[in-house]
Amino acid sequence: MSEANWYVVHTYSGYENKVKANIEKTIENRHLEDQILEVRVPMQDVVEMRNGAKKQVSKKLFPGYVLINMVMNDDTWYVVRNTRGVTGFVGPGSKPVPLTEEEMLPLGISNENVVIDFVVGDSVVVIGGVWKDTVGMIQSINENKQCVTINVDLFGRETPVEISFTEIKKM
């Protein structure tokens, strides 16, 4: 299997989040989780003056563009290219060009892989993010996405949640 790279997709302006949601739904429906790893709409926090008051808002860093970390092949190209709201990949003609390491650094995207010593069945505690201080048992490990799936108790039910390698520690 070839290596995953970051690609830029051009969308209709204002459709970035909808395109992201549609691609993620297609990934789930077609079971492409191991080929299309992540879809991002880069955001930045900006302070705006409204009615004389400062207000912090999130704005799209690149309106009209979505970043996708994927293994490029005919299936993934077809899925992304034929998503409603996508006008095409960024690159000459119909050949998508992956982002270079230098282009990814200002976006806060790094390709460094975290080495873990977890196995399925280990109990872990979440040390950051929304689920901080939650304890769960690892159900699955996704090396490509650098995350684990743990079950957490939500409203009295076991619910699977994906947590990044960097946000958990072994108990």
CATH topology of the largest domain: Alpha-Beta Plaits
Could you tell me the radius of gyration in angstroms? 18 Å
Question: What would CATH call the architecture of the largest domain?
Answer: 2-Layer Sandwich
CATH class descriptor of the largest domain: Alpha Beta
Query: What's the story with the biggest beta sheet?
Result: 5 strands, antiparallel
Shape: globular
- Classification by helices and strands: alpha+beta
Which bin fits the share of residues in helices? 10-25%
Total tally of structural domains? 2
Strands in their spatial order, largest beta sheet: 10-9-8-7-11
How far do the termini sit from each other?
A: 34 Å
What is the mean predicted local confidence, pLDDT? 84
Commentary on this structure:
Strand 9 and strand 10 form a beta hairpin. The two termini are 34 Å apart. The protein has helices at 16-30, 74-81, 101-104; strands spanning 5-11, 36-40, 43-50, 53-60, 65-70, 86-89, 123-126, 135-142, 147-154, 157-164, 168-170. The strands form 3 sheets. The protein has a 5-stranded antiparallel β-sheet, with no helix packed on it. Helices cover 16% and strands 40% of the residues. The protein folds into 2 domains: 5-107, NusG, N-terminal domain (Alpha-Beta Plaits), CATH 3.30.70.940; 123-170, SH3 type barrels. The chain has 171 residues and is an alpha+beta fold.
